[in-house]
Amino acid sequence: MGVRHSSTVTENVLQTLKWEVENISKLSENQVICGHKLYFSRFCRGNFKLKIINDCLHIYLHNKSDTDLKTECSISYLTIQNEESVKLGHWILEVPQNKCVIVSEIENFTTEFMKTLPKDTLILQFELKTEASYKDLLPLLSGPIPGGYKWFDERKRLHEDLSLMHNDENTDVSLKIGDEIVHAHWSILCARSPYFKNMYRIQKKEDPKNSVVITDISAKAIREFVAFLYTGIFEDVLYENTNLDEVYDLYRAADKYEVLDLRKYCGYSLMARISVENAVQILNWADIHNDKEVKTAAMDFVSSNFVAITDTDGWKKLTDENPKLAGKVIAVCTKKLKNSK
């Protein structure tokens, strides 16, 4: 008898964000301003919102995901006096799935208060330490034993089975990355990757080979990639403990070998790490790989933090190496500015 059992997987993400709301004095009573899309984790997204009610500015956090969200949140804003930062406070919040909760308020948000803001712009700074939990459905096996059923965690079995990839026993293809070799099975590669399926068809007709040489992706990324093909598991270790370039390397592998679900997870991971310093880099990567979802989210972040981003090395590099994309960013910012007037 086979059943499915759910266990809880938890991810923790630390983010520092800035939100610049221009022409704040034109914000009318009860008008809602939505911030750019945020990726709190791979499977948890949302945004901040602003609303003025009776001369009080309310700051909301909207969880737009099908998973609950816990976060430690610190918020401050800049004033015109020596760009002094005023801290609103520090909160620990629990935001249910698909719900919006109030985080903080700025009382007496009047015309006089707005004069203390630089160039009629409310610059909010957020520090978020987010914990997102979601149900991970694991296929389990059961068998009759006295008094009930015996449960086996399929992940343990998968881990044991994957150990076969580290040698050539029972495998029929080797992925060679420099001096390292990752062993696998053509049947799995072909079933999970259209790229490898086409490769196998061509090689089978001409000269079947049992090795594939890979020169443009790291061995670590290929190991994670092959593990995903076998298990469908996007490793938490990769997500939490590796740098942005390593996540991108796995993203490139998923894109090259046409494993779209893995590319999607890597895209969420990239966006969960976005900051003023790396936003242009992520935007450029999304443009290279024609990833519309990540590109839209990254473009929204860049245009919302454009002033700060223009001071980064990433922006200077983009204007030199990809002026077309830089021009699109400027066009989006110009359109936003016109719409806000």
TrEMBL record:
PROSITE patterns: BTB (PS50097)
Stored Pfam families: BTB
Domain of life (superkingdom): Eukaryota
Entry-linked Gene3D superfamilies: 1.25.40.420, Potassium Channel Kv1.1, Chain A
SUPFAM superfamilies found in the cross-reference section: POZ domain
Domain BTB: 171-232
Matches recorded under PANTHER family: SPECKLE-TYPE POZ PROTEIN (PTHR24413)
Protein name: Protein roadkill
Natural source organism: Caerostris darwini
